[in-house]
Design brief:
The chain has helices at 2-17, 28-37, 136-146, and strands spanning 42-51, 65-76, 79-92, 94-95, 98-99, 106-115, 118-123, 130-132. With 157 residues, it is an alpha+beta fold. A 5-stranded mixed beta barrel has the order 1-2-3-7-6. The protein has a two-stranded antiparallel sheet with strand order 4-5. Keywords: Signal.
Amino acid sequence: MRLLAVLTLALLTTAQGAFALSCLRPDPVRSYENARNSSQAHRIVLGKITLLTPAPAAKGQDPITVKARLKGHELTTKGFTAPYDQTITLSTSCAGPWCGSLPNDTTGMAVLSEHSGGPLLSMGPCGGSFFARPSKEALTKVVTCHRGGKCEARRGR
């Protein structure tokens, strides 16, 4: 009986290692298209995120929510030209042991969803809502797509 218990424990321990998070490679154009096609309102902003309070310590898979300042420029048909300076909510989520992380003092492209409590940047374990230091090429593709041109997301994982 003891041998059976040891073998069961060993099997359970090694089986967990076989599970992995499978994510589609995050892409600014794909994230823009997802936001555009969503029934929920979104804003696409290129700017710097600064946490307004220190992030609390992670407690397992519990989401973390903090307030931050996002200062930069919102996407318009002319590009990232509309000044944007707002307090936003950053929230992480988890999928099993994998959790999103909170950007701080980081410049990037944010895909914000609009909620009754204001703009929300959801940071999931697979990414896709914040792109730190995006390339000029990636930003040009997002603007082209926003203007009604060809939307060219990266392919593959």
